[in-house]
Amino acid sequence: TSAHRPPATRTTCGYCGVGCTLDVVTAGGEVTAVLPARDGPVNQGHACVKGRFTHGFLTSPERLTRPLLRRGGRLEPVGWEEALGHVARGLRAALADGGPDAVAAISSARATNEENYLVQKFMRTVIGTNNVDNCSRLCHSPSAAGLTASFGLSGGTDGFDDVERSDCLLVVGANPVEAHPVVGARLLRSVLRGAGLVVADPRAVGLAEHADVHLRPRPGTNVALFHGLAHVLLAEGLTDEEFLRERATGLDRLTELLADYPPDRVADITGVPAADLVTAARLYGEAECPAIVYGLGVTEHLHGTDGVRSLANLAILRGAVGTGRGYGVNPLRGQNNVQGASDMGALPDLLPGYGRVVDPTARARAEAVWGVPVPGRPGLRIPEMFAAARTGELRALWVIGEDVCATDPDANEVAAALDACPLVVCSELFLSETARRADVVLPVASWLEKDGTFVNFDRRFQRVRPAVPPPGEARSDFDVVHAVASAMGAGLGCPTPAAALAECGRLAPAFAGVSHDRLDREGAVPWPCRDPGRPGETKLYRDRFATADGRAHLSAAPYLPPGEHPDDDYPLILVTGRRWAHYNSGSMTRRGANIVLDPVDLLDLHPDDAHRYAVRDGEPVTLESRHGRARLVARIGEQTASGQVFCSFHFPASGVNRLTSGHADTVTSCPEYKVTAVRVIAS
Ligand code: SF4
């Protein structure tokens, strides 16, 4: 029982967006064990290998412990004063050369809410630009855009405790067994209790073997697949007519569009047999309380926002959102705080709490709290920052906790952008691929070494507490942002993380009821939570949707093809994603002094393709696209369909993101990581 546990620091896992509550045991200033909290609201006593065991990076000899400054082409250790002085001079020079919009910052979905709040406040109030973005641009920006357009708010519609009670789960473009293992286990628990399961994913992901039906669409054909399911719902009368009449809009246009998506035509586009499509639609359509859970297989496409919206159509047609007749549409967030980084306004067009920078009322609310004017022109998105750096318009870029040279698409172009930018500042734990190209590298604290909050995938604020101090001279990002502002001769207020969250609540009503004190008492509080005396809302839209007219909006976007297709030169489609033991660029999970799991970067390919291209299991292969080349080790198996290959992006040395293209979601600029035409060459 908990009574037998050693004294520990309670915190929230800093890897994926599930938000497991962990008890961190220390001795002599070092972490000796990480235990999943039995009363953790999401994890209920469970954790995956990442949360439990991959804390060895804390004491890695590769940790950055002093600031580094580039001199004569080499990065050399310097004191904080010298590093901060260089940053301040560089920022002032960029402001003098190009004005506020010549400066940009990429904030971090690994950092706390309070750190993200402070970064965007620094950019807007000290620099005077909206050029601030975070890595949700690269993963769930289509969720924010799509869910907002369909329902009015960017978050998932239902709490996961309810989702788990669903009698039919539609899991789309996600591999929770590997990427969100605690959620994967809870979904499996639902299925073992009798819930129906439809999995839609090109790969035979872990949940697929438990599915009633597994749909394997060709990568890039999601919108057609979802329209096919919607077609069957309409054709077979599996819709909620009262809900559609009273609470939705757009049915006529969608009905007209769906006439073009009968199962046979959808089968031609997607490769999914028409009979399977009908079976899946009936399972979802006839369930009492269906729920949709989805991942980056929906968003990371040329038409990712259309994918989210056409998936949301299914819940609207069924009346399974905002009612007791279903548990809505719920994105699985990849990084630990990708929801919170966006909630806090680390976005070029949105302020904390999602007020639009172009809206004078939203700006006035922020200006009343901050006491300075807020720029009204939307800033640059991450890909636009790199483009502006290449053309010389961007003169200074601060990259916080993202290894953009390893994880952003078309990585050769990203590297060229950083090389062209007169000042690149990088806040990091390790000398990442990005840090290697920076002019100044600032050593910062990890999630186990700092204070604040994260927001998990089902909108719960939870506390983050330091279990050990950061090494050497490393500081929290919170302290570093304050220090840079101070070096610029400016102040940001909010001296503590608790004060920063309190200030955020004053300009973002949806978070006004959340505070560090309350979280210390209650453990977790979901937003919206407008009142410190009332619980937050786990289920959204009970009374009305948050759209201007209070209705859910059906989308009638047609299927459009992806940016790349297989051809004679590049006959295979590469899909990238996560493995169970690693997190993003692997900077933490590859450096465990205690344990390193899955240490080799593998390319999964089907036996037919292995035979066709003379690839042998366990041997090195070269992968080439129109954009670059990578080296991996082949793993032959049937999890990946013939004509497709799969690999992770956890090993920067492999160069996988040199392969991926610049194609991006037409609404949000989210990269199309899931469809790259490649060829494989046996070595
Ligand atoms: Fe939980 Fe995700 Fe951390 Fe694993 S990585 S322990 S599932 S929060």
N- to C-terminal separation? 54 Å
Tell me about the biggest sheet? 7 strands, mixed
Residue share in helices? 25-40%
What structural category arises from helix and sheet content? alpha/beta
- Major sheet: order of its strands? 5-4-16-15-14-6-7
Rg (C-alpha, Å): 24 Å
Shape: globular
Number of domains: 4
Q: Uncertain regions: pLDDT < 50 for 5+ in a row? A: none
Oligomer: single chain
CATH topology of the largest domain: Rossmann fold
For the record, what CATH class of the largest domain applies?
Alpha Beta
Beta percentage is 15-25%
- In DSSP terms (H or I, runs of 4 or more residues), the helix count works out at 24
Overall mean pLDDT score? 94
Cofactors, ions and other ligands in the entry = iron/sulfur cluster
Number of strands: 26
Q: Based on the structure given, which CATH architecture of the largest domain is correct? A: 3-Layer(aba) Sandwich
Cofactor: [2Fe-2S] cluster
Domain 4Fe-4S Mo/W bis-MGD-type: 6-62
Keywords: 2Fe-2S, 4Fe-4S, Iron, Iron-sulfur, Metal-binding, Quinone, Repeat, Ubiquinone
Family: In the C-terminal section; belongs to the prokaryotic molybdopterin-containing oxidoreductase family.
